[in-house]
Amino acid sequence: MGKTTDARVTDALLAIFKDKNTHLDLRTQAAGVLGKIGDTRVCPDMMAGLADSEVEIQAACARSLGHFSYPNAVTPLVQLLASTNVMVRAAAAEALGNMEVKANEAAQGLLGLYGDNSISSDLRQTVRDALQKLLPKLRGEAKRAVEEVMKL
């Protein structure tokens, strides 16, 4: 499913996503599709999902927000980099790598995680990939810091 302008599709998926009585897998899938549809009306709901009690929902909402350049998402996504769940951390890193706005703030959060010696090599690579995607959008000290990481 790609970008669509039919608000009925968005509204139906959003209803599934918001219904806590709906099976977790369906809610997770709905969050993913909502990001791919590209209707920015869902951004506040995806932001709320970052604080959901289910880590699958947190990760799906982070990935969904990665499809938007929603400035309000950067700080909460940076905060998710500190999650104890590696899936959530990876999803937040991927989403931050897609940000067109507040790229320097996103990079600073990612650099902090990259510098954590306790993270797995897979997560480190995910963070590195996200930093690489951000590099053309960076300015000043953030750009220099990421360029140094890319040399390693």
Describe this structure in words.
The model has no long low-confidence stretch (mean pLDDT 94). The chain is an all-alpha fold and 152 residues long. The relative contact order is 0.10. 66% of the residues lie in helices and 0% in strands. The longest helix is centred in the first third of the chain and has 14 residues, at 24-37.
How many helical stretches?
9
Q: Mean pLDDT, as a whole number?
A: 94
Helix/strand/pairing category: mainly alpha
How many angstroms separate the termini?
38 Å
Q: What is the number of strand segments?
A: 0
| N-to-C series of helices and strands | HHHHHHHHH
Rg calculated over all Cα atoms: 16 Å
Key features of this structure:
66% helix; 9 helices; 152 residues; globular
